Give the backbone structure.
Amino acid sequence: MVAQHDLLAAHQALSDGPGSMNMRLLLIRHIILEIANVADLAAISGSLYQNNPDLGELHKLIRKPLEFFKYLRNVYVGHFSPGLTDKTFEWLPYANELLGSVEPNRQLGLSWFALETAINTYADVENGHKVFESDTDLNYPPDQTRFFNFLGETAVGSISYVSALIAVAFPYVSVPSLEEELLRLSTEAGKTDFSVLTKGKR
């Protein structure tokens, strides 16, 4: 539900066309993050497809794009990979001119170059680029449009998938009756201890 909300809100905000390129890039990064979160959900939801083939078909339509945006999340959005930093300055040496600046548009430029580099590193030596048929230059309008269209189509497909997943998964959730169990739940809530969450099995 969180992924659905954030994807809907960010996709709508980006579609409305914010005037600031700084805000546009922020929304792009958030959409990439949420698509990757949908990819994580899809990875643990395969057992539902046998009894819900429509859900499986929705996943099949976006499986490869989900993998791509999960990669972008892992090297550019959620974690800024040192390898991406190195490759950005190798691929775009004029990015060095932006280093040390506190001017927002120059910082935007560095992030923009890193996104472009991340897209281009989704490739292998033998087969080349895994998504697009050529290098991506985000300042070249056809390449920019190609990437934005791919992002938008994947966001819409992810919204469809996660909306169906909510409907399919909800019957498996045991929801307590607040009318009958509020006292017990409130007592348990009062005993809650907090500590750092560790990554465990899903």
